[in-house]
């Protein structure tokens, strides 16, 4: 009886060590990294419509995701991406003025779009204050949305839509900066 208990106890300890080692190996071969590709400059056209859902900008994006990953985790590359989440969206108007700035917009939504895939809303400002501003951080609404198929596509776009409070009088140069958290693993 003592031999059976001893054997059972030894087996349990061996299994615990094996599972513990597997978890340590998994942790060593998988990690989250944060990337913030250079901002993408685009032009916001003159906004003449006060209708909801007006396109504020469509921003084609090209990211060398492999290089961004390798810069932070040299053992990994694009083939090691397990999932991708957006963690930050910031838009800056480079040439705003007193009558053409983010106060012109009641709300703003950011979507990610790629050929052959349904658009995904990733961030939204449902009620933008009527305060002059040249920068806007858009709160993430789709923080857990899986975006791997978008950012690993050959090309994708950010689409900004919203409702204007007031029309604008000139096109505006803007820069969109999106921050991502990627899980990479072997």
Structural summary, described in words:
The structure is a single chain. This protein is α+β, with helices and mostly antiparallel strands and 186 residues long. It is 22% helix and 39% strand. The protein has helices at residues 2-29, 65-72, 148-151; strands at 30-35, 40-44, 54-61, 81-93, 105-113, 120-125, 135-137, 156-164, 172-185. Strands 1, 2, 4, 7 and 9 form a 5-stranded antiparallel sheet that branches. The longest helix is centred in the N-terminal third of the chain and has 28 residues, at 2-29. The relative contact order is 0.29. The model has no long low-confidence stretch (mean pLDDT 87).
Low-confidence stretches: none
Measure the end-to-end span. 44 Å
**What portion of residues is helical?**
10-25%
- What overall form do the CA principal axes indicate? elongated
Largest sheet: 5 strands, antiparallel
Helix/strand structural class: alpha+beta
Helix count equals 3
| Mean pLDDT across all amino acids | 87
What percent of residues are in strands? 35-45%
Order of helices and strands: HEEEHEEEEHEE
How many strand units?
9
Kindly provide the radius of gyration, computed on alpha-carbon positions and rounded to a whole number of angstroms.
Answer: 23 Å
